[in-house]
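Support case: 2-keto-D-gluconic acid complex. Customer-provided input:
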Amino acid sequence: MKPQILQLNPILIPATNEKLAARYEVHKYFEIQDQAAWLREHGSSIEAVITGGHTGVSRAMLEQLPALKVVAVNGVGTDAVDLAYCRERGLPVTATLGALTEDVADLAIGLLIAACRNLCAGDRFVRDGQWELHPSPSAIPLARRFSGMRVGIVGMGRVGRAVATRAAAFGCPIRYTDLRAMDDVPHAFVADLLELARESDALVLCAAADKAEGLIDAAVLDALGPHGYLVNVARGRLVNETDLARAIEAGRIAGAGLDVFVDEPRVPLALRQSDRTTLQAHRASATWETRGAMAQMVLDSVAQALAGERPAMSLTT
Ligand code: 8YV
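Agent response - structure generated as follows:
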């Protein structure tokens, strides 16, 4: 009999789904009607969980999976998995380390340029026929230059560094904050987030969300100020979304480019209605190239764990 696998999120790479189906009995949790009953009945036979970074897996579910040999996260964020519990249990939790760095950084820069150059509002203006109705160049307010902007990076991990490389190519002076200064990073470290916000034209959030809930609040947004932009490609809950919505509505910051939100797929109305925001539906890693590489890492991690090996991408064992 094939090993039983529980898949919590769809994988969008057909070849991976074919390989999974050929090797394992794959149970698609997201298609199961009575999930609680299903878990009670089948939980004891599940040997691997595949999940998304944002979805993770609850401790309550893990406790119902006694035969589990691996949690393979199809993503880089593991904040939605109780790593301490998995460590105690000797359970490998794997992530797709390094696979999505470039795409997430690309989207961060894309969102920042889109926000400061009003790309989406401009697109709507042309698309809606407004240009013909208002042909004067004064119908559209002037935008803000991206090249040379002072960029503050919050979280100088793989993604933060890739954002820095890209921003540096646009002539942007870069500063960053993290839990500590890093010897191998050529940019100025600023320990205090408020100070970083005051010294930046744009703050780009690339930090893990584990211990940083609500890190970006009204005080940080006010320090960023009415000419400042916020970009978030990390996790929604790094930001106090109520504070952000108020700052956007009142023009206390110039704009925001957001790929992630506190309660996805729900996005506060104030953020959806504003011309100051450029929004994406958690798409930073959603290219064929990256999702293909991520899916391969997931396949490898599951295969290694079920073969009794320590998965190369394990963060907990
Ligand atoms: C992925 C993410 O889109 O890597 C992460 O932590 O949140 C995302 O980039 C998601 O995990 C896909 O399942």
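Residues 9, 52-54, 74-77, 100, 282, 284-285 surround 2-keto-D-gluconic acid (CB under 6 Å).

Case will auto-close in a few days if no follow-up is received.
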